[in-house]
Design goal:
Rossmann fold, EC 3.1.1.-, 18% strand, alpha/beta
Length: 460
């Protein structure tokens, strides 16, 4: 399989955004670090994103661009998440087939996870080479994180991170045809916070017309009111020696702010900074996400699901089974319930909603843990960091099957299993359950339906 490590030959594309020079290895072309917006620095920091405009010179897209993550939340993460310095954090990467025909191809736009505080679009787990192999153009997007992206400051327009993603989707609409993609067949997808962002965009009136299908992997329904973060922002400002305002936080670097958030989190197990999530009450999210899902996005087919254990792995099988039946685990209250709630909110939708559950237990984590389904859906079991998370011999046939299901959905096919309505006994596609077929269409996987908690979970 074509590797990102292979330098390849130079290849150029002439798009409305300008001439972009990438690399081709085998039948895969990569164009990385393409800025879709002006760098959010100076007066543009804590301001809505501004389109970059046409690039005046040929742009070298041979390497990943700068990441909004400057300081990782953890010394070790399940997903390899490199931090890359630079100002142009609002960039995207494109992995496309080196096709010889003019047939426009479906497009997958991927939003990385990380609790809205961290994460990196440059992860090797998000390399779209298998999608390109199968005739899909894969786009990975960077967006502002933490305070810079989601702090509801009095003098700052809310949801800057979501506004970044919407502008990136506009860039895709305007430019993706030059890379072989079809702007009328765009699927937006993401995992964890990225999956939650997908649900936020799906519920937003601003999302209309920007994408045509949606996939949410382990994406909870996470939103807050502006008042919810005030105490955290005041404590963060005190730690940094600044008032919790645009001017105050703007006087500190992104690195300093992210380090301050980490310090708060480490202080007596403080998880309050995870209120830095999409904020309700503006033009992007005028109502809570769960309410918006009952109104918007009903013409968009949706595929969503969760891993069997998310953050609850490691317990004895009998203990796990009892807790799952009671619906008391973090997995159920934060992630699995969001799937049932989304299906219920879309009960009257014209387009369908389909559920899946990833059940393969990693020998490393002792369960179907958060994030470990990504290498299967991307079919990149040879990527760096996979053995450390999945063990030495993850089932390649499971990756082949799961990736094929996702590719089929992105291409516009209706999943082979039944639609979900949020009712008890909803059908779901179950992947990798020990003792069962690699994929089994089951009912009741998401029973019981439990209320979602009002706080976010640990990022990858």
């Amino acid at each position: 399989m074509d590797s990102l490590d292979s330098p390849g030959e130079q290849v150029s594309v002439h798009a409305p955004a300008g001439t972009i020079i990438g690399r081709r290895t085998g039948r895969v072309r990569r164009f990385l670090g393409i800025p879709y917006a002006a760098a959010p620095i100076g007066a543009r920091r804590f301001a809505p994103p501004v389109p970059r405009g046409r690039l005046p010179e040929p742009f070298d897209a041979s390497r990943h661009g700068a990441t909004a993550q400057r300081v990782p939340l953890y010394a070790t993460t399940t997903i390899p998440e490199p931090s890359i310095p630079g100002d142009d954090v609002l960039n995207l990467g494109i992995v496309a087939p080196a096709a010889d025909d003019d047939m426009p191809l479906p497009v997958l736009v991927w939003i990385h996870g990380g609790g809205f505080l961290a994460g990196s679009p440059a992860s090797p787990w998000y390399d779209g080479r298998a999608f390109a192999r199968d005739g899909v153009v894969c786009v990975t997007v960077g967006y502002r994180l933490g305070v810079d992206g989601f702090a509801p400051l009095d003098d700052v327009l809310p949801n800057l991170g979501l506004r970044d993603l919407l502008l990136a989707l506009d860039w895709v609409q305007e430019n993706i045809a030059a890379f072989g993609g079809d702007p009328d067949r765009v699927t937006v997808a993401g995992q964890s916070a990225g999956g939650a962002a997908v649900l936020a965009l799906l519920s937003s009136p601003a999302g209309s017309g920007r994408f045509h299908r949606a996939v949410s992997l382990s994406g909870g329904i996470f939103d807050v009111g502006a008042d919810a973060a005030r105490d955290v922002l005041e404590r963060l400002g005190h730690r940094l020696g600044v008032p919790p305002t645009r001017a105050g936080f703007g006087s500190r670097t992104v690195e300093q702010i992210q380090q301050g958030v980490i310090s708060l989190r480490n202080e007596q197990g403080d998880d309050d900074p995870l209120v830095l999530v999409p904020c309700v009450g503006d033009d992007i999210l005028p109502v809570p996400i769960a309410d918006g899902l009952t109104v918007h996005g009903h013409d968009i087919p949706v595929l969503l699901g969760a891993t069997g254990d998310e953050f609850d792995g490691g317990a004895r099988p009998d203990v796990t089974a009892a807790a799952r039946a009671a619906g008391t685990r973090v997995t159920d209250t934060l992630f699995r319930s969001a799937c049932a709630r989304t299906a219920a909110a879309r009960r009257q939708a014209i387009a369908g909603t389909w559920l899946y559950s990833f059940e393969w237990p990693s020998p490393v984590f002792g369960g179907a843990a958060h994030c470990i389904d990504i290498p299967f859906f991307f079919d990149v079991l040879d990527a760096p960091g996979v053995p450390q998370a999945l063990g030495p011999n993850p089932p390649a046939d499971l990756a082949t099957l799961m990736h094929a299901d996702l590719v089929g959905f992105v291409r516009g096919q209706e999943p082979a299993w039944g639609r979900a309505t949020g009712a008890l006994g909803d059908p779901a596609r179950e992947y990798g359950r020990p003792g069962a077929a690699l994929a089994a269409d089951t009912t009741g996987v998401y029973d019981p339906v439990v209320p979602a908690m009002s706080q976010a979970a640990e990022p990858c």
